[in-house]
Amino acid sequence: MTASPILSCRDVTKTFGGLTAVDGVDLDLYEGEIRGLVGPNGSGKSTLINVLTGFLSLDSGSVTVDGTRVERLPAHRVSELGVARTYQIPRPFATLSVIENVQAASYFGNAKQRPTDVREEAARWVAFAGMQDLAHEAPDALTLHQRKLLELTRALATRPRVLFLDEVLTGLNQQELAEGIALVKRIKEVGISIIVVEHIMRVILDLCDHLTVLNFGKVIARGAPRECLEDEDVIAAYLGKSHA
Could you tell me which Pfam families the record lists for this protein (predicted)? Predict the structure, then answer.
């Protein structure tokens, strides 16, 4: 890991009317790291991702990507700095094939590419994700697992340095889950730093170097995964005070 984080936020707060969804959050992601972002439903995880990636404006605080302040930039400008994300519900272009969806994402990641470069880049990531046999299928012909793979592959085709995975492994069977965990580890190996939002503890323990735990928009724990999951405040947040 480098001395400075590749992505960092300080005292980030986001409110909706009278509801504080994210409350003074600090978070660092370092090069080569997989950081889990966990917490009960409604704890502020997705809102925080939306703020960090430019899809929502914050009320106060700062966000930096490789030292550049980005909290006032729109999502497409944040993406240009090497930040990509997936969505809980995949959002492919329904009228395009798998490979065409990935080509579109590759072009979005660098509009100055030549068409041949776009095709080569897309084919490389489709093969990386093991989707080459599905390259010419339409999205509506894919299983849930395959649609989530397509969502992930599209994000990779933008050539990010930071990747947010928002429940990309949720809803998969055990074999698919094992394959997904292995794929995320390979993504880390090619030099992409990752923030993972997941409820599946197997994923958190197998993948994450460190955790940040949210509850009611506040950070209640951070550190090694098992240490965080055994924290009394974290147990109380998930199971109630009587179990802490």
Answer: ABC_tran, BCA_ABC_TP_C
Amino acid in the structure at residue 1 = M
Question: Alpha carbon of 43 to those of 21, 35, 217, 234: distances in Å?
Answer: 7, 17, 5, 12
Structure tokens at 14: 């986001």
Contact 197, 46 (CB under 8 A): yes
pLDDT digits (tens, 9 = 90+) for 39-67: 999 999 999 999 999 999 999 999 999 99
* Best CA proximity match to 43, nearest among 241, 196, 173, 237: 237
- The pTM score is 0.92
Domain boundaries, the chain: 1-82+160-243, 93-159
Q: How far apart are CA 188 and CA 182, in angstroms?
A: 10
Supply 231's token pair: 């924290």
CATH class of 1-82+160-243: alpha beta
For residue 24, what are its two tokens?
């003074």
Cα 182 to chain centroid, rounded: 16
